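Might you be able to check the backbone structure tokens below? Thank you kindly.
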Amino acid sequence: MFDYHVLAANRTATLQTEMNADAAKGYQYSQFVGGETSFGGQELVVAMRPAAGSASALKTYRVIAASSTSDLEKKLTRAGEDGFSFKGTRRFHDGSGTEESVCIMERDESALAHIAYKILATARTSTMQKELQTAGQDGFVLWGITLSQTRVGVSEVVAILSK
């Protein structure tokens, strides 16, 4: 039997606070989505589930958002230096017209380690293929892939990798 908690917020800071409060009660991240809900407008919705074992209280969460790939890479790098591992990403329209990449990050306090993140972004899938091959040969593992738009409106594929 599972006892799920569903959290919803239209601000990443609020969601992060709620996720960490649930983690302190023995829950861990399961899934998330971003979009328009019936009564909340544009929201990030996270499902939390009971954590296995007693390590649940040792997890903390960081929710990061960035509108550019360079800003996303900086924030992921900081999170990796603080021992946070990547859990998932979604594109999110915050209701004010801004579209951002939102990432859920999780840290297991009993196993802190530095994690190096790398962002690849390109408009051409053939270029992404080549860049992923090179990154893979350098030891990077692909954790997430999403679509984004540059400030001048060009669609691009964005890959999130770590080692």
Summary: Strands lie at 5-9, 27-37, 41-50, 59-66, 85-93, 99-108, 117-122, 141-149, 155-162. The chain has a mean pLDDT of 89.
